[in-house]
Specification:
The structure holds two protein chains of two kinds. In chain A, 77% of the residues lie in helices and 0% in strands. By secondary structure, chain A is an all-alpha fold. Chain A has two domains: 1-35, no CATH class; 48-265, MetI-like (MetI-like fold). Chain A starts with a helix and ends in an 8-residue tail after the last helix. Chain B folds into two domains: 1-46, no CATH class; 47-262, MetI-like (MetI-like fold), CATH 1.10.3720.10. Chain B starts with a helix and ends with a helix. By secondary structure, chain B is mostly helical. Chain B has helices at residues 5-33, 48-88, 92-106, 109-120, 124-127, 130-155, 158-167, 172-183, 185-201, 206-209, 217-227, 230-262. The chains are: A mainly alpha, B mainly alpha. Chains A and B meet through α1, α3, α4, α5 and α7 of A and α1, α2, α3, α4 and α6 of B.
Chain lengths: 273, 263
């Protein structure tokens, strides 16, 4: 017999269930059907692995995301462990500075990169002063790479700091007293202990680099990454079927990356773009 | 702790990383407030650019603030009851529901936007109304509200508090408003700040969802970056920072508040 409490709970969850079904599950289902209705038919879903121009952008996007993840983990790993381990004057100011861009949207990140490496940016001015040649990197894949690192560092540093604070410093002392060199301590003690946190943060880095497109949109529309391709298919080519199929494949990849990290680390992983 | 040469190198490294993150922010604020960025600070400080941006883009800015507040209302009304039920009934069904709710965050925004357009794009009035953008923002931000409230519910043993109130004869309405809501306040606050911040900055979805009449702040930003001179683009960014940074500071403060309460 459904008691009063069950009825009450159903009543409380009903609004979310209805809204979510009407505005997300059904539209997503329809998008899936549309993905199979274009010139390629259902093969549209495999076109990203068979059609040359999609394969190219897929490879670019995956490699870029992997590289961003790796570099971000190294930078944030070093800075995060350092901040968690050492107390000094100005520590909290430094932490605040490192986490300032935490919720900047992709478009703003793009502009920050233009400020650094754009036509009137800091880096070209510096290189001109040093070598006489202005090196502009913002409006290319390099700019996007720097932008995604910029975006991912604050979040990753916070994750690493939280994990490193739980790490027992005596383990490192023990390793050192047994004659391990600093790099050996890092490789055999610190990294294994931080592994779950690094994996979780890495998955978020990877997923956001795969799916975000505000930064690419700001820097240059001709950067050949998958979200940009989807956008062009939809707006310029009016090829809704291909855009739908591509965004499904892209969504599946980011969803799997996050799911994998979650099942490996056992805690909740949430991406925020 | 003994400070080695490593300490010094690591400090320099960390300082460099923080410079990489903060310098462009400072530069864009300067650029938005100087008369001529190319000449530099010597050309003098001015608010002209900010005023120019405000007069040209204030509709986008007001619209974004409005959508963010409406989004907050929706996530509060939908999210808190949902979190309560997910907390009370922890089983395979609710875990699946929680997983499903997270999907709009895991999926690239462009996919969600395409789904909404293919389904409701032909509904004329709705497509060109700002509530079309609102729907996308609510889908994207709802999981953050639900998770934030759920986390507090799990950390304060809400069940015991509620049983206590029930044994004293409190009705569901009394329990919900006088026990559940006040005790979840830190989670609701943290979730609310998160929702506002994300909604204000959402671009991935909004670029496809917006129409010329419903241009939001970040879409306007992208427009300014693409077409206008660097001082105007910077001044627009300054206005955005002016709204965003207080939210970020409040978010960090509320996190510290929650931690000190639950520890």
């Amino acid at each position: 017999m459904p008691n009063r409490e069950t009825k009450l709970h159903l009543l409380l969850i009903a609004p979310v269930a209805i809204c979510f079904t009407a505005f997300f599950l059904i539209p997503l289902g329809k998008l899936f059907l549309i993905g199979g209705s274009g010139e390629f038919g259902w093969m549209a879903y495999t076109a990203v692995f068979t059609e040359r121009r999609y394969v190219e952008s897929m490879i670019t996007t995956v490699l870029l995301s992997l590289l961003v993840t790796l570099v971000t983990l190294v930078i944030s790993g070093i800075a995060g462990v350092f901040l968690a381990r050492n107390q000094f004057a100005g520590h909290s100011v430094l932490t605040a500075m490192l986490t300032l861009p935490l919720a900047f949207p992709g478009v703003v990140i793009g502009f920050m990169i233009i400020m650094l490496g754009g036509r009137q940016g800091l880096f070209p001015a510096l290189t001109e002063w040093v070598s006489g040649e202005r090196v502009v990197f913002a409006y290319s894949l390099v700019g996007l790479f720097v932008g995604y690192i910029y975006f991912s560092i604050p979040r990753t540093i916070l994750t690493v700091m939280a994990a490193a604070e739980k790490l027992d410093p005596r383990l490192e002392e023990a390793a050192r007293s047994l004659g391990a060199r600093p790099l050996q301590v890092v490789a055999h003690v610190v990294v294994p202990a931080l592994y779950p946190a690094l994996l979780a943060a890495g998955a978020i880095c990877f997923a956001t680099a795969m799916g975000a497109f505000g930064t690419a949109f700001t820097l240059a529309t001709k950067i050949n990454v998958l979200p940009m391709v989807i956008y062009t298919e939809f707006t310029m080519q009016a090829n809704i079927a291909m855009a739908a199929a591509l965004s499904f494949v892209l969504g599946l990849i980011t969803w799997l990356a996050l799911g994998l990290a979650r099942s490996l680390t056992g805690n909740s992983v949430a991406a925020a773009a | 702790m003994k400070r080695s040469i490593h300490f010094r190198w690591l400090l320099v490294f960390t300082l460099c990383v923080s410079m990489f993150l903060v310098l462009p922010v400072v530069m864009s604020i300067m650029a938005g407030l100087t008369k001529n960025y190319f000449v530099g600070l010597s050309s003098g400080l001015t608010l002209d650019w900010v005023i120019k941006v405000w007069s040209e883009y204030h509709r986008s800015i007001v619209l974004s603030v409005g959508i963010a507040l409406a989004c907050l209302m929706c996530t509060l009304l939908l999210g808190i009851p949902a979190a309560y039920v997910l907390f009370k009934r922890s089983n395979a069904w609710t875990r699946t529901a929680e997983e499903l709710l997270m999907m709009p965050v895991a999926l690239p925004g462009i996919a969600t936007a395409l789904a909404l357009i293919t389904m409701y794009g032909a509904v004329g009035e709705f497509r060109s109304h700002w509530s079309f953008i609102l729907v996308g923002h609510v889908l994207f931000t709802l999981p953050f509200m639900v998770r934030s409230v759920l986390a507090v519910m799990h950390s304060i043993e809400l069940n015991i508090l509620e049983e206590g109130a029930r044994s004293l004869g409190a009705s569901f309405r009394q329990r919900f408003f006088q026990v559940v809501l006040p005790n979840c306040a830190p989670g609701i606050l943290a979730g609310s700040l998160m929702v506002l911040t994300l909604s204000m900055g959402e671009f991935n979805m909004t670029l496809l969802l917006h129409t010329p009449f419903t241009q939001t702040l970040p879409v306007g930003l992208a427009d300014a970056y693409a077409s206008l001179r660097i001082e105007v683009a910077s001044a627009y960014t300054v206005i955005f920072f002016f709204i965003l940074i207080p939210l970020l500071v409040a978010m960090q403060a509320s996190k510290r508040l929650t931690q000190s309460k639950t520890n």
